[in-house]
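Entry 12.
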Amino acid sequence: MKYLILLLFIVNCLILKSEDEFIYKNLVGFPLPQVYGYNDNIAIIASRIGDSNFVYLTEDKCETWKMIYKEKRITKEPFSGNIMDILFISNQSFLLNFHRGTIVVTTDKGENWIESVPDSAYYNSGAYMSYHLNDTTYLFHYHLLLKSSDNFKTWQSFENPFEKADSISIGRMHLTKDGYFIAYLYDWINDHRYHASLNLYDGNYQLIETPPHMTQSYFINKDVGWCFRRFNFFEFNPDTLNYQLIYKTINGGKDWFKQMDTTILQCEFTDMNFLNDKIGFAIAINSLILNTEDGGENWRILFEVNENDKPFGTIYKIVTFDENTALFRSSTKVFLLQRNPSGVFEMIPEFGSKNQSYLARRGGEIHLQNLEILNSPALHTIMGAEVENNLHFNIGKNASVITLPSDISCGLYFIHLDTSEGRQFIQVLIQD
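Predicted 3D structure (tokens):
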């Protein structure tokens, strides 16, 4: 398994100072989080704890979060029960894509969910690659393309236009806003890897020649795009770190020019995301975050890190809200990146110090075994805003008991505790 499912919450208080203008905050410490963005306000975090999947929605750039989906999905292999992808159809409609060819959709922002198998021939055979543009949703699978234009009621089946032979499969793909699918393809028989584009409107299919060893591309339209070698545990690493470059094209891949060589930094990229043709971010596995505001002509490192101090761990994905805000995830954490006019970077404390996570009801109790509380606990949102600073508590023989407010909104919170062992935080998910 690529990741170990861990639920480790560690309190860290670090201050990083720089001449840059961004601040980052750790939002939530769920294991194996996934991050998805829709527009300049809306994003989703999905996570799996034990046999249960959780989906949280924010509509205000991460100021508040609401749980919109919780479901226990037990499978023979735990990984098969994960949410593999989430597709935004609109600010009301979302599609959850599971590993076993199953989708779950909502058209009312999570109030109601409907599960379906779009094509029974692909049940138990892996997850779809899902995309949406205008009024149509696209699901790609091996040699299959499904389309729906009626809110998932019916699906039309087509041959996958990229997989023109049995030996060819899609590695990665994205959809530009002007209607072009850009795919990274494998030809296993001929040992050839390449990029290709498909115009949704006229079906025009074209190969895109990239510089050697570039395995990931990011296009904002049919002409303007970037490419780099994406880090992958299972792919051959050519000459160690001699290909850590960023290239750009402005004519659909006919010509590429080098923008940045990060070989000296010994970083391997995992993702790139652009807000427009000027503002974008690139991330790497060794906690490096790069930012550009001129289309990649100049890239700057937002946080200086060293070999022994990597505050983010391995970063896998970044979602850009606007020129001042982005959301990114590492293996086990989610961070909010914000521009800070003061020019000072701060590491906000990461909550949870004793692997403690609780599920409780409004007005219910939390029993903390073998823990002595010194002062009244304080309740905080996941962004650190104080909700209640004087929670009722009792100290028993073997446990301290905290009583939660009955008028509080459901959601994810942290409780700040002053104990005989020092300051601690615990996580609590409050439900009806």
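Annotation: Residues 357-431 form a domain with the Immunoglobulin-like fold (CATH 2.60.40.1220). Confidence is low (pLDDT under 50) at residues 1-19, 28-32, 343-355.
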